[in-house]
Amino acid sequence: MVANSIEYVLGIDGGGTKCHARLENLAGEVLAECITGPANPAQDTAEALASITQAMHALPVQAGLPPRMLQQTRAVLGLAGISVPAYAAIVRQWTLPVSNVTFTTDLHIACAGAHGTDTGAIIITGTGSSAFVTTSQGPRILGGHGFPLGDKASGAWLGWRALSYTLETLDALHPPSGLSQAICQQAGTSDAAQLVAQSLHLRSAGYAAFAPLVFAQAQLGDHNARDILAEGGDYLRQLAAQIATHKPARFSLIGGLAKPWLPWLPSDLTTQLSAPLGSPVEGAVALARGDIFEPTPGKLQHV
């Protein structure tokens, strides 16, 4: 139990590309907001801790408040990767500038932000991809197995598929196309060996940097780009079908690639979707303030 009374709430949305943090007072006034580096403990535990710590230190400075205010702050951190128990155990051992901390998944805060309630469903497609739905037996996560084993229809997957197709094109297995040319142009090489060398140590965000080219070339009529989107779209359709069996009150598609995906999805999926009410970081702040619900066992992991 923290001795100091709570006067502020802090929410963090931590993923493979960035850490988005927001500080508010109990009245809901936004005092500060910042973005730092990647914060997925399953990808790089030390980097995630550094990004989160940096954000927590930056917020009071930005708000013009003394550092000691962090001891009067309740925080909810929604992090990618901690649905894996081993990484959930690691983050619970962290020493952070805010001592009153609750950890949960990025999916949980995203669902809370999208629906403003403890119930509903989401599909996230950004750097990674996954789905979350509340059921009568509790929350259920679909996908979210991490790249390259999972994350289908994500930015990382789209970029990986486009790079793989481009390498096959450079091997003369396919005729050159707008997609392969765009990939080579962005990579700065049309040499297969150099393209492989550049890709060997890419993480999810590195692959995801090529994803916009797939949407752009599909829009221009490139059938290879459209084939990739058809495969990814079918996966999202299957996720949605599984979610529908739980009859969620609201269902949203969110994430950095949600808008680009919409024109390429079947109408039987898009007609199910409701516009998200808020962002994941807003969901984290609302959870910290207790606007949505009191944390219950099995949903949040307390430190």
UniProtKB/TrEMBL annotation:
It comes from the Bacteria. Residues 10-259 form the ATPase BadF/BadG/BcrA/BcrD type domain. Coiled coil: none annotated. PANTHER family: N-ACETYL-D-GLUCOSAMINE KINASE. This is ATPase.
